[in-house]
Design a protein that fits this description.
35% of the residues lie in helices and 27% in strands. By secondary structure, it is an alpha/beta fold. A hairpin with a 2-residue loop joins strand 4 and strand 5. Helix 2 packs parallel to helix 5. It binds adenosine-5'-triphosphate and magnesium ion.
């Protein structure tokens, strides 16, 4: 059984359909990317998994349970964390306060939360150095790391990442790339949306291409890197 199995998923905003029958499977322990042009519906797909799009039909099975049948606030408790588009840190709270917000699903497990906090600081030493700094004063890359760190505080088994590299300098993108690979190696199943197709295909093992609310191609990242259609449409080579 796949960890995540999406079946014939449709979603719309106020009567405007965006997802037109998406079906895809994500195996436990995998690292998948979703690529596609602007407005293909990539963010909507992640938001629908997280229960944030009210008008939808089909099935989203997570370890066999249908997420469409449960309220959004229960979804993180099942082990799904979502790092949304844009760097959504709380600017007037410190780095550590931001991180601790991600632990709310594990309020009862004080020691476990303290251990995870140390792991997040090991993962992102820049955050450890800045633990008392207001998050609004972090650089863009550091804010993105804080947003990912906050998601990790809930000890997710599935991490949904919406364009984490957006607007970051190449050196920071490389750091982020390395961090994503380490997070995956620590046992977290990863679903990454990226405009930066090169980055997506270099970190993910498998990719789905979305176009106008549909999956139009899926396969290994290596295969896609060598696919003339992908090279022309997304890599410009
Ligand atoms: N809250 C909303 N209300 C109404 N329409 C929306 C809303 N959010 C997204 N849409 C529409 O849904 C479509 C898909 O948007 P979505 O953000 O999912 O695309 P995307 O693939 O993530 O694009 P990008 O690469 O630009 O982030 C777009 O036409 C967008 O205008
Ligand atoms: Mg988007």
């Amino acid at each position: 059984m796949s960890m995540l199995s999406i079946q014939a998923l449709h979603a719309s905003y106020d009567g405007a359909p965006v997802l037109h029958g998406i079906s895809l499977d994500v195996e436990q322990g995998s690292f998948v990317a979703v690529i596609g042009a602007n407005t293909a519906g990539k963010s909507t797909l992640l938001r629908t998994i997280s229960g944030l799009v009210p008008r939808r039909s089909g099935k989203i099975l997570f370890n066999g349970r249908d997420l469409l049948q449960m309220p959004a606030h229960e979804i993180p408790v099942l082990g799904i964390a979502h790092v949304p588009e844009g760097r959504q840190v709380f600017p007037l709270m410190t780095v550590e306060e931001n991180l601790m917000l991600g632990a709310y699903v594990r309020r009862q497990d004080k020691q476990g939360v303290a251990d995870t906090l140390e792991q997040v600081y090991q993962q992102f030493p820049r955050l450890a150095e800045r633990r008392k700094q207001l998050a609004g004063t972090l650089s863009g890359g550091e804010q993105q790391m804080a947003a990912i760190g906050r998601a990790l505080m809930g000890k997710p088994s599935l991490l949904l990442l919406d364009e984490p590299s957006h607007g970051l300098a190449p050196k920071i993108v490389q750091e982020l790339h390395d961090a994503l690979i380490r997070i995956h190696s620590s046992g977290v199943t990863m679903m990454l949306i990226e405009q930066n197709t090169q980055l997506a295909l270099s970190v993910a093992k498998q990719a789905f291409v979305m176009q106008s609310g549909r999956i139009v191609l899926e396969g290994s990242s290596d295969g896609m890197l060598n696919d003339p259609r992908i090279r022309e449409a997304f890599l410009g080579i």
